[in-house]
């Protein structure tokens, strides 16, 4: 069975459903062709060894990859990013309709306004079933993150999304809340499946890399947040919690690893509050982050209070659970339910410093045996419910059903 895997981002670019996914599909007996762009994310510059051309075929670790031209850009200018998305959609549509060997199923990976439209037209012209993977609920995500605030534009986005969802054969979402919302918006329940994302298991399961020199030393209880620090993460509330914790248990420290638009503001706030129990570290390569997380005593996830985030499962959740450290989960909804089901952490109310501080103190007060038990439950839950192998088996079943 032939699968055309259509995604704008693919290795060597960072992506969740990339080479790792394609190789596992081939192990399941599928023939896979990847249709993607020339690598330029996240810097917006074409990677060394590549140049824009009409199309390029290459084989990466046994997987056939076809690259089509796009406008490389990932800066803050809206026109550049629009051209980046639209140019790939047009190129993918032309290749998918005119040149690609006819697949049994097309699998398309986000976003709806570009990839979604292109794959809907490929389905129309090639008459092949489409499985569409939704990673962000548009227009909700655009509104919640502030990327788009114009109500008319958001309404247009919503209408286009409905057309895409109506045209494809099956939809895969990352959480039960996403599925519920789509059904409420008129998508047939039988059409929507929940498949949880997985993590880079090689990096998380075999941690490498050295601990940064400015990491807190022995005798401290390190709660680590790793990833983007933007407005959606609302980490100023965590710094207020750190101020509370500093007075009650100075052994507890908070380590923030990564970059983002709010880093400088957060550093300033920590300085103003004279927080001795807070560190900000530079981003760590994915191949090494597992080693840093493995040295933490607990791992933190925090998003601001928003209806969208109650149905979102942040991708770092799976990475944290694969590493196996106790979680301080300060997000409501589906992801909190996941942590409760796994029994691998303590839940706090987002943007509530007192609740976050109480959760940190509770984790600190647990015995080593209790925290070790959380570690084992976390790893086991990931392996049985969230792992790559589990996810690919579910995708394989959907692909076979769709091809029939």
TrEMBL record:
Glycosyltransferase subfamily 4-like N-terminal domain segment(s): 21-198
Instruction: Give a single Pfam family match.
Output: Glycos_transf_1
Q: Name one GO molecular function term.
A: glycosyltransferase activity
For this protein, the record's InterPro entries field holds: Glyco_trans_1 (IPR001296), Glyco_trans_4-like_N (IPR028098)
Q: Which UniProt keywords apply?
A: Transferase
Q: Pinpoint the Glycosyl transferase family domain residues.
A: 219-380
Report the SUPFAM superfamilies cross-referenced here.
UDP-Glycosyltransferase/glycogen phosphorylase
- Keyword hit for Transferase: yes
TM spans (from-to): none
| The name this protein goes by in its record | Glycosyl transferase group 1
